[in-house]
């Protein structure tokens, strides 16, 4: 079931070079410096890590959530959707994609409030 990577949707849609990233980030970089932009992503990566640890998720689920978060903002502005809402959403989606099991909404909301 090996497919051709060069024809895959991953290769066509998600391998972005430096110019693509800069073009997509222009709106955010007009307000933030590159350093501030990177610090925001470090903060939210740490937030996703903490949420995952509090929910007792596997590291693979946490890593998938972080990738989802970064890929979303590779194509969208930070003003598009509040990152504080997207981070737990990525954790929830990653737990389903990685077949970890469904996290109850109330448990996820309580954990987010405590963090």
TrEMBL record:
Put simply, this protein is called Cyclin N-terminal domain-containing protein
Against PANTHER family, the record matches this protein to:
CYCLIN
Q: Say yes or no: keyword Transmembrane present.
A: no
- Organism of provenance: Diploptera punctata
Q: Which domain of life is it from?
A: Eukaryota
An example GO biological process term is: regulation of transcription by RNA polymerase II
Sorted alphabetically, which Pfam families does this protein's record hold?
A: Cyclin_N (PF00134)
Q: Keywords for this entry?
A: Cyclin
InterPro entries for this protein: Cyclin-like_sf, Cyclin/Ssn8, Cyclin_N
Could you tell me one molecular function GO term of this UniProt entry?
cyclin-dependent protein serine/threonine kinase regulator activity
Domain Cyclin N-terminal positions: 17-114
